[in-house]
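Lab notebook, bench 4. The sequencing result for the construct came back, and we need a structural model before the next group meeting so we can plan mutations. Quick request posted to the team channel:

Model the 3D structure of this chain.
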Amino acid sequence: MPIALVVAATVLTHTAFNGGRLAISLTALAAGATPLTVGLLLSLIAALPMVLAVHVGRLVDRIGVRHPILCGVALLGLSVSIPAAFPAMPALYVAAAGSGVGFMLFYISIQHAVGEAASEAKRRDDFGWLSLGFSISNFLGPTVAGFTIDALGHRAAFATLALFALASLAVLVTRRGRFRHSPHRPHDGAERSALQLLANAELRRVFVVTGLLASAWDLFTFAVPVYGNSIHLAAFTIGLILASFAAATFLVRLALPWLSRHLREWTLITATFCIASVAYACFPMVSTVPLLALISFLLGLGLGATQPSILALIYAKAPPGRGAEAVGLRSVVLGASSTFLPLAFGGAGEAVGMLPVFWAMATALAGGGLLANRRRAAGPS
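Done. Here's the predicted structure in token form:
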């Protein structure tokens, strides 16, 4: 399975998803929606994936990655095209739910394709390349969505993003034979439970770290459009601030092969918590675009460095034949964060403003840094 094919499909698919998430937020705000409503829409993107992720992981373990990847991209493309055809609030709710499920299918399958194909020595580097693809699309998605909204309107933005998904589907269909298709059918007849995975102490630590870092990422995704809109920034400017975050994740992931030779996984995770905590403490104290972009860049450096390490830890510790299920359980954690936290952020933002929300996150990340540092000091398990 060529890693270049995986990265190309990831860039196209995640551009459609990530740009669609921003387009949904800005379209709702333009229609007069409150921050709480925007939070509800963003929560809906993650709600069904949160419920279905473990089951999808088991399905991928059983049948392989090929069909779930194709179905996921097709569903994503259909979902983001709906608001282009039917410009109304109900269409945004349908697009949010459908795009979340479609991308979840792709996300679990593509990670499993990489984790299963790579050797343990090469796995972290391959996940680094995959993460690099996500960094590129983190830049492209908000930029394309913001620019198209300003230039051509909201409907054109959704139509453009649907074309990215269609391009990914075309690449995957024509190259589907290159994907390794090796299902793992259980022969012992034993019933499998996610609780068995949670009983693994190392996996449990990884899931806790995943939840904290996902909270930081979700707050950024939610808060920048709301905060930018409140200080009257244009959609393209908001997209550029988000893109500065993505540019930082790209650069730090480009450096990951070097970092991985000098830093162990838990050392890198500890550093991430420290950087993200400082960035969140500073964010609500500035309102100029250059400073907002600079802080977003700093946050991207922190949060962008950890995904390959976390995925490598998951595949190193997951039981044989249950790698996709473990990734699915991680996706449940990510989904819970993306489902409930935007609602909490939206409600808190309306009640007390965004400053306490940012500082509460900074405090939580500082606590996460202390926990990760203890694991780092303990050394390999």
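The CA atoms of residues 41 and 93 lie 6 Å apart.
Will bring this to the meeting.
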